[in-house]
Write a structure and sequence with these properties.
This protein is an alpha+beta fold. Helix 8 links the parallel strand 5 and strand 6. The protein is globular, with a radius of gyration of 20 Å.
Length: about 220
């Protein structure tokens, strides 16, 4: 029995079977990046649908007052979920905040037949890491840089690359420095940031959310 038939059988089987498949997909969804690693999402499951809800108890009102980053985090979890479903031979149709739902959510309906090969993306999900440490200083080779720039299909967003020492990057560095100083001079920002940092290995192992001190670089 190939992967598609197995996935279809599980999807259309008993509710307990669908719950098992959904847990598997959600386990990859929750590996998505999020602001301060707050993981501001909740999930519900019913027969052929998985819903992703914003968890506003995990919002960051100081650095993200309009919840812009929170909803980007939901989009990242959704992307992982869709990739994991495709890996199982399933396609996903997403309804974004449908009006017929009692609460705001992303509703993902699953059906048989993945539309594209996502194996490389699926393998990247458990390997992805966020780290603000210093890189090794090696220049990115031109072919990899071109692939990164070509990966942006959005016509309304311009992506540019800067080499170290490029004159156009100096003003940007200045703005980033000023922004960082302004943030860390804000007691509310510092308090909120510290509340999400796990300073010891024990604390990090006991809580899956939040940032480790090492991740801050």
């Amino acid at each position: 029995m190939d992967k598609l038939v197995r996935a279809t059988h599980r999807l259309m089987g008993a509710p307990a079977t669908m719950n098992h498949l959904a847990r598997e997909l959600i386990s990859f969804a929750v590996r998505a990046p999020s602001g301060h690693n707050t993981q501001p999402w909740q999930f519900s499951v019913e027969r052929d649908a998985i819903r992703i809800y914003p968890d506003l108890s995990r919002r960051l009102p100081v650095v993200d007052p309009d919840n812009h980053a929170l909803f980007i985090s939901l989009g990242c979890a959704l992307e992982n979920l869709i990739i994991a479903a495709a890996h199982q031979g399933l396609s996903a149709r997403t309804d974004y905040f449908p009006p017929d739902e009692p609460e705001q959510c992303l509703r993902v309906r699953l059906c048989e037949g993945a539309q594209e090969n996502v194996e490389a993306l699926f393998r990247a999900i458990p390997a992805r890491q966020s780290n603000r440490g210093i890189y090794d200083g090696c220049a990115i080779n031109e072919s990899d840089l071109e692939r990164l720039l070509e990966a942006n299909p959005c016509q309304s967003v311009l992506v540019r690359s800067f080499r170290v020492g490029h004159p156009d990057i100096e003003p940007i560095i200045g703005f980033v420095r000023e922004g960082n100083i302004a943030q860390f001079n804000d007691p509310a920002f510092a308090t909120k940031l510290v509340s999400w940092i796990r300073f010891s290995q024990r604390e990090a192992s006991e809580q899956r959310d939040g940032l480790t001190a090492q991740a801050l670089g």
